């Protein structure tokens, strides 16, 4: 576990310093196209704005929204410095509203699934003691809330945020995973023309014009898991299997623990084959695998590692099952903590349409660490043609 901590600190160190500083970054238009996916902190909003309640004439906001991600924070608002708050999120692709007001916590989920990759017009508004969500001009969700402990006349400021929350996540009635791979455009926020404030860690990234399901690696960045958090061994005969579907080139994965490092890189060969490089610290070898189908099966047995039932690397001195259970770093897209080695084996470029560990789909939003350049749930459709 000490090895895991050292690598995580190495990867996150510069970002944590910037987050602690909370230096004000640039301001961006509230009506432009905003990519919510690429940020360092899970819960900190990508951007936020505030205004005096006396300037508000309409508690109504609307914007276009597109995602393939089933879960994450979309839109947040609060008054009284977070004493009364509201958050719109997705769970299983379905809109969910949670509200905290005085002594009341409310969580309501309903309406159509929004994670179909199409643009949807969302509108949120207050109607007296009700909060209404419309999708494509049709009412999908209505939440009523009343507390005798709350005064109707409000003064002070209202705060809005995208892609996160401004209050502690412990206040949530129904916890969720906040990261969301989504885009927003054409936003109108209350009756304000205020720009959004970002912090110095934010790097604006464009939204793909057309998307398909998958996790996109642009040739920069990795997604790293602790194997002890992943599905474990069922039977020794079957071993532990990682299945990857998609179209890619570069370092597919690496497996590391104290004194051990294994790298699997898939490099473009001719149109019919791809070269698979297998590397250990003390040596490496390569073997050609058929280019089709675009599937890679990596099987971990007690003393060996197998790729597509063709390449087998044996190490009798190592017990991979025990190492997996205790905790190794399973990294997709490169080699963490060793930039020079990552460059030498080529960072991953392409779309991983699906990753399965022991038959279970792996969500990159659940990673121990994920670089901001990696898109968890969407790939650009044009990138597929470049790799075929």
TrEMBL record:
GO cellular component: extracellular region
Residues spanning the signal sequence: 1-25
UniProt cross-references to Pfam families, sorted A to Z: Laminin_G_1 (PF00054)
Segments forming domain Laminin G: 33-379
PROSITE patterns named among the record's database cross-references: LAM_G_DOMAIN (PS50025)
Superkingdom of origin: Eukaryota
Record localization: Secreted
Gene3D superfamilies hit by this protein: 2.60.120.200
GO terms for MF: steroid binding
Keywords in alphabetical order: Disulfide bond, Glycoprotein, Lipid-binding, Repeat, Secreted, Signal, Steroid-binding
Purpose of the protein: Functions as an androgen transport protein, but may also be involved in receptor mediated processes. Each dimer binds one molecule of steroid. Specific for 5-alpha-dihydrotestosterone, testosterone, and 17-beta-estradiol. Regulates the plasma metabolic clearance rate of steroid hormones by controlling their plasma concentration.
Quaternary structure and interacting proteins, as annotated: Homodimer.
Protein name: Sex hormone-binding globulin
